[in-house]
Write a structure and sequence with these properties.
Two copies of one chain form a homodimer. Chain A is α/β, with parallel strands linked by helices and 494 residues long. Chain A folds into two domains: 173 residues, Aspartate Aminotransferase, domain 1 (Alpha-Beta Complex), CATH 3.90.1150.10; 236 residues, 3-Layer(aba) Sandwich (Aspartate Aminotransferase, domain 2). In chain A, 43% of the residues lie in helices and 13% in strands. In chain A, strands 2-9-8-7-6-3-4-5 form an eight-stranded mixed beta sheet, with helices on both faces. In chain A, strands 10, 11, 12, 14 and 15 form a five-stranded antiparallel beta sheet that branches. Chain A starts with 15 loop residues before the first helix and ends with a helix. Chains A and B meet through α1, α3, α4, α7 and α8 of A and α1, α3, α4, α7 and α8 of B.
């Protein structure tokens, strides 16, 4: 029998796991914004705003964050090592960067920055990462436990691939969640076990709630293998307290859960009363070593002061998995050969930056602090602006790069959304985009409202704090004006 | 009930799909070579050779291939766009590279090379790739159909993820195969349907053999969804004739199979009587458009004259999948956000290199031709050397970067291998490595002997042609000496 072309590949015949997940940060609003932008290019002035303000994606450099000079100089030299032999180079690059680039090139296979590396990443760069972790935590870290990766997302995917055997395997994930997690769990054939963060408790994590979800999942026949914790939080912007972190460590240890600690916002903390502590540090401080608890920590160069999203650099530190499992992870990593070298270099620089005494230390620190202080200011301004709006409440943005205000939508707005076949928060986000050019992600994109939990029926938007201070100044009055007219249109008249 | 730590993650409790595949190019021989290298570092002179010759991995720059100057200059400038505003830059970079870098930076989100890009890759770079494909084939190519990727391997994984629904879905793959394919099919839960290449027919592909395998698979209840063709071949080094390619296109069209065309060695062709033709070009030349046949073509910057393996740049061109499927592919791609920017830039440069009239054209062409001519020379020398050995036969290395000689092993050697619990080709490869420092991959690593096919019981090694001409000159006598003594030890005495 012979098959015809139409049977070979259609949306009906692709992997159904691909079809069922949704990924809103790149979904409806992103496409809508792109359409608007194209429309405005064709007919300038057709909209009451000059440009789209992309607050939907955590993409610092697209919104004007400057890269760290030292990082880019080192990258540039490693790409073109011939420069290291030229005198003129000293006119264009700092001695600091020249030294570091030389050291990196020396440690590369074939003394060249274009060969496949070890699948875990170049050893000397992993050593730099491990020493950065040890300095951060005050506890040792080993280069054997570090996997350099193409950003945190590929590391998270790899972890799910290792952990998930079937639909009977569950992974605890926070709600609202960063939707990479549900996508990755679905794609690898497992089951997401959601637990609710507490909006009333500064988006903290209540152990009794997690325990309830774990028990429900077990009763339903699932083997829960791991727990994802995002700290600082995305989309929620909270920074967990040490006490809360200790409870989580105790819980995972007792229940035999692998901790998947998404710590990519570790350098984005804005409030005096909170500090970042890695889960590994918290566990070690409690006296637990790798025989007591398994922890994977994910980090990347995409956020923090580097903001190098497009470079796809990151690492995972895997503790407590045993040599045989590590061998299997190395094998899977070797299928895609190695992480990209530019990302590997950047990751080593971010974790092992210039030190006091290095020529470029002061400039580096100044650039870093500028970014942090400005983000802290914007976090406060935006959260304040949202809180000041009728029917909106917004927790403090303690960390990460998002405000996640709750909108108490009037019944008429919810009805109007339904009539257009949209969730109410998407309806609000579309109206906001059309009126102001401000693109945000509706809370439902983070599965905030995926049923069977008390948060059902609450509506949110996620708005990055990334537009420059000048832009935020312009953005806030536009936001206020829109919100007022939206509320006027739909306000409950009871 | 509370679980103890030991239950949380062990080699017994990880995803079994991870456990069952093997990936020999990074396996036994690679580890053995690494151990030897460490041993030699500790006690220099402990072995009768000065260094390990890594002929096991296709890693050009690790073995001394020089990167193309133009490529590295552009990369270096894009990493550090501040250079574009400095006069001194003209002393260090060609005007050609400066112009190209300026053009690339202008087209980037935020005019910055560190932001997330579109998940398919930056549009202008996809346009450059599409124009390169059109110039190569003489048929149009559209940037919408191009996905820039972190090397070809991630593109291949993505394709398998889209195509495979369950173990009942099969994918036709050549034997000997590049083991990424079996690994990827297993990891995505499908079934590999192997077909044999014909060693006697210059490693060509015999349609009756593929048809036989397809029919057997269908009788066994499989839905065969796609056919992988590697051209030029890995590990076999053949370049398919146009007639053979036409047969394959007709076959896939008639049988409703998606063609997965691994064309990463398209710039590695060394013989006068063979040329590279993309499968898309062959299909279009036969008058078939995207309504007639679905083709995915994979390419990367890792091989060819660029040899930029560690940069993880590549693309896939997807033709004939329909808009809804393309939407799903975009969604899956967006889960890992975007391919790395350095790889994206390199891919655009490789597909849209300097043209006649550009200032750096001559230098670029000279570098490119140097690499090609030297590889052609090495291909001939190595294949000749292997053929000259007792009990060895070696097909012409028409393309790619591998010689894949067959070893007719004496019965005593096969017995000795069995006694050590090794496959005979691994036994030979280990002995070769221990005696000479030359690392090659045993043919069984390419599943050459995975049963139920007529090639069972033939033994091969894969040896890259990548060591420099000087090194090959030293390597050949060592190889000959080893082989002679191996044969003396095991020669059949009947």
């Amino acid at each position: 029998m012979s098959y015809n072309k139409t049977a070979s590949i259609t949306a009906e015949t692709i992997n159904p796991k691909v079809k069922i997940f949704d990924y809103e940060p790149c979904g409806e609003i992103a496409r809508h914004a792109e359409r608007l932008e194209q429309e405005m290019e064709k007919s300038p002035g057709s909209r009451p705003f000059p440009e789209i303000t992309y607050c939907n994606l955590g993409n610092p450099q697209a919104l004007g964050q400057r890269p760290i000079t030292f990082f880019r100089e080192v990258l540039s030299l490693c790409d073109n090592p011939a420069l290291l032999r030229r005198d003129e180079t000293r006119m264009l690059f700092s001695p600091c960067a020249i030294n570091r680039a030389r050291k990196i090139i020396e440690s590369m296979p074939g003394r060249n920055s274009g060969a496949y590396t070890n699948s875990q990443g170049i050893r000397s760069l992993r050593e730099a990462v491990a020493s950065g972790i040890a300095a951060r935590d005050g506890f040792p870290s080993r280069p054997e436990d570090i996997f350099l990766t193409d950003g945190a997302s590929s590391a998270i995917n790899l972890s799910m691939q290792i952990l998930i055997r079937s639909q009977e395997d569950g992974v605890l994930c926070p709600l609202p969640e960063y939707p990479l997690y549900s996508a990755s769990i679905i794609l690898h054939g497992g089951t997401m076990v959601p637990y609710n963060l507490s909006e009333d408790g500064d988006w903290g994590l209540e152990i009794f709630e997690v325990k309830r979800c774990l028990e429900e999942a077990r009763i339903a026949g699932l083997t829960v293998r791991a727990m994802v914790i995002i700290n600082p939080g995305n989309p929620t912007g909270q920074v967990l307290s040490v006490t809360n972190q200790e409870e989580i460590v105790e819980f995972c240890r007792k229940e035999g859960l692998v901790m998947l600690a998404d710590e990519v916002y570790q350098d984005n903390v804005y409030v005096e009363d909170r500090k970042f502590h890695s889960f590994k540090k918290v566990a070690r401080s409690l006296g637990y070593d790798e025989n007591d608890i398994s922890i994977v920590s994910f980090h990347s160069v995409s956020m923090g002061f580097s903001g190098e999203c497009g470079r796809r650099g990151g690492y995972m530190e895997i503790c407590g998995f045993g040599d045989d499992v590590m061998g299997e992870i190395r094998k899977v990593a070797s299928v895609t050969l190695c992480p990209n070298i530019g990302g590997q270099i950047l990751t080593s620089l971010a974790m092992d930056p210039p030190k006091l005494g290095d020529g470029c230390f002061e400039n580096f620190m100044a650039e870093k602090e500028d970014i942090r202080l400005s983000l802290a200011k914007r976090a406060k301004t935006l959260a304040g602006a949202f809180s000041s709006l009728e029917g909106m409440t917004c927790n403090r943005v303690e960390g990460a790069i998002y405000a996640f205000p709750r909108i108490h939508l009037p019944a008429a707005a919810i009805k109007a959304a339904k009539a257009e076949g949209m969730s109410p928060d998407l309806f609000y986000a579309c109206r906001l985009l059309d009126a102001t050019g401000i693109a945000v992600v509706p809370g439902s994109g983070f599965h905030q409202v995926s049923g069977r939990n008390k948060a059902t029926g609450t509506w949110h938007i996620r708005c990055t704090i990334l537009p420059g201070e000048d832009k935020i100044k312009v953005m806030i009055p536009r936001l206020k004006e829109f919100h007022e007219s939206f509320m006027n249109e739909f306000r409950d008249r009871s």
